[in-house]
Amino acid sequence: MTGEPFKVKDCTLISIATGAEAQNLRELNDRIESIHPGCIYYHFWGGMLRPTFDDPEYQNDFAAWAWRSLHDSRLAERLAIIDPSHYPDIEDLRREVIDVIQERLAESEYIPWAKTGQRFAFIRSQIVVFDTGKRVSHPLEMAELIPTLSLGSIFYHFIDARRRTKSGRSDFVEWLHIFENGKHRSLIKKINEIDPYFTTLSQLRKDLSSVFQTCTVEGESL
């Protein structure tokens, strides 16, 4: 093996109020066109780190607001199926959201409004990263460690890494590529097949643990 050991980090998202709000669908469209990219990131991914008692009915905040405040189930469904992991560039994701909203505006006879007190409030995220001090030198060690990782660690290394790395890959995959002779191609493939969005961080941790625990590469155990 070459390169550095895997440095396990933890993170949290700090919510920063922007003061920008929208009361109807036209205002939502206009705000999204110019809002800070950190808002787009937060309203798609932030819910995974926010403490909730139940899984959200809709994975992103735009879809949830369309359903709960605008009472537009068709728009909510269209926004809900947008998978941000398919858009490495946040501006491409922004454009997709705008396209969906504008399509709905074009086919609607009136502009949907939210009641007073149900405005969409744009929140910007800032990620704060902590070094846990844990280091991993081999996939076998990672297999043992993953079930104990915090949800913040899962978010940072499996989700946020896709924004940070030039390749758009998770930190786990980036790390496995340092091993010689492509020994862990099968493991890398299985990690890449895990859907990072339409799930929960707890389930992601279970899926990663299962892959590391059971995967073999070219007939050899990890």
How would you sum up this structure, described in words?
There is one protein chain. With 222 residues, the protein is an alpha+beta fold. It folds into two domains: 12-124, no CATH class; 134-221, no CATH class. Helices cover 46% and strands 17% of the residues. The protein has helices at residues 25-34, 37-45, 61-68, 73-80, 90-107, 139-145, 151-164, 171-176, 185-192, 201-214, and strands at residues 6-22, 120-136, 216-217, 220-221. It has a two-stranded antiparallel sheet with strand order 1-2. A two-stranded antiparallel ribbon has the order 3-4. Strand 3 and strand 4 form a beta hairpin. Helix 3 packs antiparallel against helix 4 and helix 6 (139-145) runs antiparallel to helix 10. The longest helix is centred in the middle third of the chain and has 18 residues, at 90-107. The two termini are 13 Å apart.
